[in-house]
Design goal:
The chain is α+β, with helices and mostly antiparallel strands. It is built from 10 helices and 6 strands; from the N terminus they run ααββαααααβαβαββα.
């Protein structure tokens, strides 16, 4: 009497495990995406986590990178769980076809996510941790990388692969495309922050592309006159948004304090002192940008009308940006 070969436990449950991991990954990236799109601050267990999540590496064409991660995790969950919804004897062929197609898609998707996550871990280690220390570790990024690696392992061992050659070819093709694409996307990262004068020390943010009207110039000069200060970092997209509201001419009039040691004319010791005052006065964590106006602190990007109200500005308010 011949015994039927028993299906390994991992093969019976791999799709459920992949779906569960993908859903957890979707929750992780959905939270980051929501905070970025709503302009809220991400709750970070490390003080420099927001520095990573607000850097130019966290955006692709102005879109939060986490949004692409969210879509990838949702896709993995659908590929893993969709065939399980096909039941019944009359649908066996459809179930078999879906099972074969989605396994290859799962493997390709997991490969792409793992390779891209590995590249992002390299960026975090070399551009942030190596420069700013262990506190700049992004826990959300590490968790996502762990999820991506786990998905790859589960797709690899979650079924019996008959054509190993196809698997190896898919891995190298997808891996190379993702790696080359990643290098292309981030080819100018850091260069956009370079000085116009390459001999000048330190880095600045992307150029301000808006122009200033008379109202913006008048407000900027008033803010300087009353001793208002803007604290920021050259890599901070919200700081760039704030400068865009003033325009290229007016932004030269405001008192800007660079907090990043690698920025142009940095004053990190002043920022550290102000950070303590901000937390004592507001109960909130010091972030970029932050304004100090007449002894009060205002966190986040402020509209020009808000800055005018806070500083007692009485001039024209026909702001054009």
């Amino acid at each position: 009497m011949s015994r039927r070969r028993q299906t390994p436990w991992i093969h019976r449950n791999s799709r459920y495990l992949i779906g569960a991991i993908a859903i957890l990954g979707a929750i992780n990236t959905a939270y980051i995406t929501a905070t970025k799109l709503l302009g809220a601050e991400t709750a970070c267990p490390t003080s420099g986590c927001e520095q990573v999540l607000s850097s130019e590496y966290a955006y692709i064409l102005g879109i939060p990178l986490s949004l692409f991660g969210l879509l990838a995790y949702i896709g993995m969950a659908v590929f893993a769980l969709a065939p399980l919804a096909v039941k019944g004897e009359n649908n066996q062929e459809l179930r078999r076809n879906l099972d074969n197609w989605t396994w290859l898609l799962l493997f390709a998707g997991a490969t792409a996510m793992m390779v891209f996550s590995a590249y992002l871990m390299y960026i975090m280690a070399t551009q942030f941790v190596a420069v700013y220390g262990i506190n700049s570790i992004c826990i959300y990024c590490i968790v996502s990388a762990i999820f991506a690696t786990t998905l790859f392992i589960l797709t690899l061992i979650g079924r019996s692969w008959e054509d190993i050659g196809q698997l190896v070819l898919t891995f190298f093709l997808v891996g190379m495309v993702v790696l080359v694409g990643s290098l292309g996307v981030y080819a100018n990262a850091g260069l956009s922050s370079a000085q116009t004068d390459p001999s000048a020390p330190g880095q600045t943010g992307p150029a301000v592309t808006t122009t200033s009207g008379q109202a913006e110039l008048a407000l900027a000069r008033h803010l300087k006159q009353v001793g208002a200060k803007m604290y920021g970092a050259y890599w901070c997209p919200h700081c760039h948004d704030q400068k865009q509201l003033f325009g290229a001419e007016a932004v030269r009039e405001i008192t800007y304090i660079e907090c990043d040691p690698s920025g142009r004319d940095p004053k990190p010791e002043i920022c550290q002192s102000v950070a303590q005052k901000v937390e004592q006065a507001t109960g909130e964590r010091f972030g970029f940008p932050s304004w100090e106006i007449n002894g009060q602190f205002y966190l986040g990007t402020q509209s020009l009308d808000q800055l005018a109200d806070a500083s007692g500005y009485q001039g024209p308010r026909n702001f054009q940006n």
